[in-house]
Amino acid sequence: MTVTGFIGTICMFPLRVIINTCVRLRIHPNILTFVGVLINVAAAWALALGRFVTAAIIMVIANIFDFIDGKVALELKAVSAFGGFWDSVIDRFSDISLFIGLIYLYSRMGRTDYVMVAALAMMFVVMTSYTRARAESIIPKCKVGFMERPERIVLFMVGAFTNRMAAVLWVTLILSIFTVADRIILTWRELKNAEGVIA
Amino acid sequence: MKRAATLPARVLWNAFYWTYERATWQYDLMVIAILAFVWLTPPDWLNDPTATGSGPIGWLLELVNR
């Protein structure tokens, strides 16, 4: 087993308890998704005030909701097309609100350089999900690139807990650019191959 | 010879064009590289607006320069 696989297995134990509780209480997954975004907005607020450790703790709570909604939907047999759509849309609000918190903080500190880094990172994070969503409307699957949402969230929490947000923003920016590029390359290749098959 | 010359290029390409799943050794390696960058890079090098100090690498450099 790999190190990250082992950490994932360990984290699943407390999450399993929370999932089972939500299933027993029959909490609708769409409500869990919505509660998650509200808590994420609170995390963004803490980031904006420069209270990184508080923000990190709130992010952990918010992302528990974010993580379990799909699993609860499966167990309650409440999986729906709207649920998937709702989850994706709400996830973008969560992502963007955290960046807005940081942009507010850096602009208040007069750090235009990091306002730009955070704004660019936000742009590529949004483009990461857009490229996949758009690509999967024309090709079957577009799951390439390292910097997906779980990686981004964990990295944000690491940065906030250890006060290394600048380094985290640089990594997020560069790897999100790579991820967007990967998805464009894959889509181009797949479409070119499909054209070749048709021709 | 040719194989040796293309290996670093292939590693770089695979790191850029990422197709590995989670919980693979390649994924672990990438995570380690990212955490090393985040935790070891001196905040001063990045002009970090919130973190201060020189970080572990800075302490090591100070120790060596003493």
Characterization of the model:
The complex is a heterodimer of chains A (199) and B (66). Chain A is mostly helical and 199 residues long. Chain A is built from 7 helices and no strands. The longest helix of chain A has 34 residues. Chain A is globular and about 60 Å long. The model of chain A has no long low-confidence stretch (mean pLDDT 94). Helices cover 64% and strands 0% of the residues of chain B. The N and C termini of chain B lie far apart (43 Å). Chain B has 3 helices and no strands. Chain B is mainly α and 66 residues long. Chain B has one domain. At the A-B interface, helix 1, helix 6 and helix 7 of A face helix 2 of B.
Which terms would index this structure?
A: 199 residues; mainly alpha; Four Helix Bundle (Hemerythrin (Met), subunit A); 7 helices; 83% helix; globular; B: 66 residues; 64% helix; 0% strand
Query: What spatial form of chain B do the alpha-carbon principal axes imply?
Result: elongated
Number of DSSP-assigned strands of chain A: 0
The radius of gyration of chain A is 18 Å
Q: What is the percentage of strand-forming residues of chain B? A: under 5%
Chain-wise SSE layout:
The complex is a heterodimer of chains A (199) and B (66).
Chain A: H1 3-24, H2 29-48, H3 52-75, H4 81-108, H5 112-135, H6 149-161, H7 165-198
Helix pairs in contact in A: 1-3, 2-3, 2-4, 3-4, 3-6, 4-5, 5-7, 6-7
Chain B: H1 2-16, H2 25-40, H3 55-65
Provide a brief overview of the structure.
The complex is a heterodimer of chains A (199) and B (66). With 199 residues, chain A is mostly helical.
